[in-house]
Amino acid sequence: MGGLVYYSSASGNTARFVDRLGLPALRIPVRAADPMPAPGQPYVLICPTYADGLGRGAVPKQVIAFLNDPARRALLRGVIAGGNRNFGQTFALSGRVIAEKCNVPWLTSFELAGTEADIARIRAGLDQFWRMECPTAA
Question: 25, 16 in Cβ contact below 8 A?
Fold first, then answer.
């Protein structure tokens, strides 16, 4: 079984979502001066989307800094993106951007802090994903 790494801004939507998943997770800090987590195992990244109307700035700067480290990026196995459906085509855009740039699958998305159905769906999906990723761990 792999781990989770996530970023959440001061609004806390993504942090509330990850807390409700009830799975161990490392948090990428909001402040650039704070130390980055050092995952010791493969992980799925959970990232909110902050894009303007043209999609610029979809991936938070702290997430970019985290993934710019080759050792951390090498352990990335997939991405789950959060967003707000009010933003139309840029909804959960960070997932598409990270998946493409890091050559990992964009697993799914959720809106704001997620619904109970999102929590159940994503928890089950992660369980299935890690079993496929590491079949001997089942």
Answer: no
Residue 69 token pair: 């480290």
120-131 pLDDT per residue, tens: 999 999 999 998
Confidence at 112, pLDDT banded by 50, 70, 90: confident
Q: Which of 18, 14, 54 is nearest to 30 (CA)?
A: 14
Cross-strand partners of 77: none
Instruction: Match 């699958």 to its residue by tokens.
Output: 105
Largest CA distance in the chain: 44
Instruction: State the first-to-last Cα distance of the chain, in angstroms, to the nearest integer.
Output: 8
pTM for this predicted structure: 0.91
- Where residue 23 falls (left for φ over 0; alpha for ψ -120 to 50; beta otherwise) is beta
- The conformational region for residue 76 under phi > 0 = left, psi -120 to 50 = alpha, else beta, is beta
